[in-house]
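Thread: "does anyone have the structure for this chain?"

Original post by V.I.:
We have the sequence but no experimental structure in hand. Need at least a predicted one for the grant figures.
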Amino acid sequence: MVASADTAQVKWPGQLYLSRDAGESWRYTRDIDSFSHTSVSLDSDRILLLPYELWPLSPGDRRNAVADGTIISKTYGNLDTEPVPVRFIGLDRDLDEYNVDELFLLSCGEILRLRDGGLITTIYGRFGLNSERHHYEFIAVVSHDGGFTWEYRSIVTDWRNALAGPKDQTNHPAPDSPTGG
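Reply from O.Q.:
Generated one for you, tokens below.
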């Protein structure tokens, strides 16, 4: 488990806690540069923490993003951390800017393993057409390399069927949705 501050920053300093009893109790292990709370087990001794905030893969690119994730590994009883690039590629539209030179694309979901061995998770972002309305879209992405590269799969829900933000408690359904609007 990683506990971190909830403020906008390049790296999210956190504390790594480990459990030896399936989560009944937790023990502080060390400070780390975590990036999000989303993780995937690479093997019995390594975990990949995904990045939370993302930047263009190349200057001006608004459909492909990258940031360092963190591999936590156990070698001979010692814990090591290593930064590693994690990419989100092939989005179907240009993303808004989040901060200067940063894309409005954030990782947030649980990771599920697919039958074919791939992985699927959700991310959320804001696309250029919605920038003035502050509308978020939830996006499904898949990985076939253990979580280091994530490819766009589909929009899970768009702003017409999702809350405008975490503090917005009013749902604004699309006019053609079953609940009206």
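V.I.: this helps a lot. The longest strand covers residues 78-89.
O.Q.: and The chain is about 0% helix and 45% strand.
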